[in-house]
Design brief:
Elements: E1 5-11, E2 16-22, E3 27-33, H1 41-58, E4 66-73, E5 75-78, E6 83-87, H2 99-106, E7 112-116, H3 117-128, E8 137-142, E9 146-152, E10 155-157, H4 188-192, H5 197-206, H6 225-233, H7 237-261, E11 265-269, H8 277-291, E12 300-303, H9 310-317
Length: 321
């Protein structure tokens, strides 16, 4: 095969996919499984090797036709060592797991790059999406959690070990009673992401706000991005308050990013952006409310463009870095 391809693996808690792309981002082939998250980690790595091999075989591609394999994982990553430091979305937690070494044994001779999912999506948007043509940008995903990836002068900024860009753990409210998964209180993720919607709903109930959709403290666990959006459309005051506060928190987080990095562009992606124009506009308004006279040139805020396969395409794009 004359044309070289890039391979991406999107390793999430619900879905595991492997795909081949042309170097212009065109999808060539894809394979997906959903039964991996309960397995031990060595077995998950074996499934990844099998998926990569399967998609290559289905596309009649040899190992020498693939420039490399990028793996995006929802985890804390030690980039230089190719290790998963820790995870939270899988049945079996791990610490300092030598992921790249393990996968390299099963796919000998192939170049493998491991990074977290937000970094991968950031680089995918930089190469193929809303960030194409920009040199300094930040990608922020607002979904079950909140994460970010940073591009400075056309290069990923990862920091000492690879954890730069964890904007979801920037502390927005030092007086907050909401405890984040990291152990701190008042993180952006704890105040604005889908993972915490049940806790936030209970908090509003405790403060005396009444649910108009029949949700109680005992049934609040069902509240996620979809049910919150449905409740907001029905006029539920608690759902509306949660969405509005989420937008305010994200907007304040963007202001902190702006003052720290001064990017040309912030790209917003993730499931909660489906809340629509009201959500995006409120994020922008909150951001601008902080700037006062300190912004000489506007920072753009745009939605992600790489679509449903953003994680896969971003993972594959890492090969081109």
């Amino acid at each position: 095969m004359s044309e070289k391809l890039i391979c991406g693996v999107d390793l999430g808690g619900t879905k595991l996919s492997a795909a081949l792309f042309k170097t212009d981002g065109t999808l060539v082939g894809k394979e997906t499984v959903y039964d991996h998250s309960d397995k031990q980690w060595d077995d998950i790595v074996s499934v990844i090797a099998e998926l990569v091999t399967k998609v290559m075989d289905s596309c009649s591609v040899m190992a020498e036709d693939v420039l490399g394999i990028g793996v995006a994982c929802a985890a804390h990553i030690h980039f230089k060592k190719g290790m998963i430091v820790t995870v939270s979305n899988f049945a079996h937690n791990i610490y300092d797991y030598p992921f790249v070494d393990k996968l390299s044994v099963l796919l000998p001779g192939m170049r493998i790059i491991l990074d977290n999912d937000a970094n991968a999506q950031a680089f995918g948007e930089f190469m193929f999406g809303a960030g194409k043509g920009y040199h300094n940008l930040v990608f922020v995903t607002v979904s079950t959690g909140i994460g970010g990836g940073i591009i400075v002068n056309d290069k990923m900024l990862r920091g000492k070990v690879g954890t730069a860009g964890e904007v979801g753990h920037s502390i927005i409210d030092i007086d907050s009673d909401v405890k984040c998964t990291c152990g701190n209180y008042g993180c952006a993720m704890a105040l604005a992401s889908g993972l915490f919607f049940p806790d936030l709903y209970r908090m509003h109930l405790k403060k005396g706000l009444e649910s108009s959709i029949g949700i109680t403290a005992e049934t609040a666990d069902q509240m996620n991005g979809q049910t919150i959006e449905e409740g907001m459309k029905k006029g539920d005051p608690i759902c509306t308050a949660i969405v509005e506060n989420s937008a305010d928190v994200v907007g304040s987080t963007l202001y902190n990013i702006y003052k720290m990095l001064d990017p040309e562009l912030v790209i917003l992606g993730g499931g909660l952006m489906s809340f629509g124009d009201m959500y995006l506009n409120r994020i922008r308004e909150r951001f601008l409310s902080h700037t006062h006279e300190m912004m000489s040139e506007a920072m753009e805020i745009k939605l992600a463009e790489t679509g449903r396969d953003a994680g896969l395409l971003g993972a594959a794009a890492l090969v081109l870095e």
